[in-house]
């Protein structure tokens, strides 16, 4: 993509590391008994010099092994994490589906959570009233709408969160493993929603392990490997690169106990 072509998302030289303590003190008693004990930290690099662009209306997939930095990258694009280096530019309104439970209050009912999350994502009261039944129906939660979320399964919460995310007015939809939790019927609903969003010209960034979905829907795919870009290009070549790395003797050796 040339510098003169429009971009929905531009990520340039992004790096991110987390400080991990070698010894964790989780209780007040531990701090009181050993107030001056030195705790060593190490830097865990999650992303290193990651760059890519996403065009308006593009379905962009991000794949990679567990721990490759996929979710961290999506949270940086969403503004949940701040990168240590590099820049992120987003041109358009975001609707993020990043992490199960974020933004939900388990002590409130599904009805209350729909109203709160829809408002936070920019829906007016009139828009919420008009879209409420569609949100509940898509999530298949009509019978449970007045139950507290703490009684919901993880699959029910995923359905509800995704239903809200696609009902708000957005230009760019960020999805993290929405296909990993949920039954086959819900996944079919997700695929139908993808078709509608693509037809509407929405930009979609999908982090997933579902290579079938990448092959069927993605215009382009990024492969992350140990926090770095391993490949950025056609979905078929991205899948081949990912599977080749995963099948390599070194990768198998690292996965052995």
How would you characterize the overall build of this protein?
The protein is α/β, with parallel strands linked by helices. It has one domain (56-83, 93-255): 3-Layer(aba) Sandwich (Rossmann fold), CATH 3.40.50.300. It has nine helices and nine strands. The chain has helices at 28-33, 70-78, 110-120, 125-139, 154-165, 184-199, 211-217, 235-247, 249-255, and strands at residues 9-21, 41-54, 59-64, 85-90, 94-97, 172-176, 203-207, 220-225, 228-233. The protein has a six-stranded mixed sheet, with helices on both faces. Strand 6 (172-176), helix 6 (184-199) and strand 7 form a beta-alpha-beta unit. Helix 3 crosses helix 4 (125-139) and helix 4 crosses helix 5 (154-165). The longest helix has 16 residues, at 184-199. It is globular, with a radius of gyration of 20 Å. The mean pLDDT is 87.
Defining key terms:
257 residues; 37% helix; single chain; 9 helices; three-stranded antiparallel beta sheet; Rossmann fold; six-stranded mixed beta sheet
Helix content bin: 25-40%
CATH-defined superfamily: P-loop containing nucleotide triphosphate hydrolases
Low-confidence stretches: none
Shape: globular
**How many domains, as an integer?**
1
Tally of strands: 9
Radius of gyration computed on alpha carbons: 20 Å
- The largest beta-sheet arranges its strands as 5-6-7-3-8-9
First and last CA, distance = 42 Å
CATH fold field value? Rossmann fold
* Main sheet overview: 6 strands, mixed
Beta-strand content: 25-35%
- CATH structural architecture: 3-Layer(aba) Sandwich
Structural class: alpha/beta
What is the top-level CATH class?
Alpha Beta
Number of helical segments with 4 or more residues? 9
Arithmetic mean pLDDT:
87
SSE order, as H and E?
EHEEHEEHHHEHEHEEHH
């Amino acid at each position: 993509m040339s510098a003169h072509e429009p971009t929905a998302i531009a990520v340039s030289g992004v790096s991110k590391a987390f400080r991990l303590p070698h010894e964790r003190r989780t209780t007040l008693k531990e701090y009181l008994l050993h107030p001056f004990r030195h705790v060593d930290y190490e830097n865990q690099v999650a992303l290193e010099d990651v760059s890519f662009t996403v065009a308006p209306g593009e379905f962009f997939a991000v794949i990679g092994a567990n721990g490759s930095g996929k979710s961290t990258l999506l949270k940086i694009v969403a503004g949940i994490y701040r990168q240590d280096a590099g820049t992120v530019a987003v041109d358009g309104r975001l609707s993020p589906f990043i992490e199960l439970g974020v933004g939900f209050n388990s002590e409130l009912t599904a009805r209350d959570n729909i109203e709160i999350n829809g408002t936070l994502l920019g829906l007016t009261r009139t828009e919420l009233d008009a879209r409420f039944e569609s949100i509940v129906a898509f999530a298949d939660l009509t019978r449970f709408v007045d139950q507290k979320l703490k009684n919901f399964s993880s699959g029910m919460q995923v359905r509800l969160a995704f239903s809200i995310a696609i009902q708000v007015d957005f230009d760019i939809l960020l999805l993290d493993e929405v296909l990993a939790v949920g039954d086959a019927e819900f996944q079919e609903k997700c695929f139908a929603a993808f078709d509608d969003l693509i037809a509407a010209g929405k930009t979609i960034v999908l982090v997933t392990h579902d290579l079938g979905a990448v092959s069927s829907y993605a215009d382009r795919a990024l492969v992350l490997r140990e926090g770095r870009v391993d490949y950025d290009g056609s979905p078929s070549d991205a899948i081949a690169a990912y599977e080749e790395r995963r099948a390599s003797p070194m990768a198998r050796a690292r996965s052995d106990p």
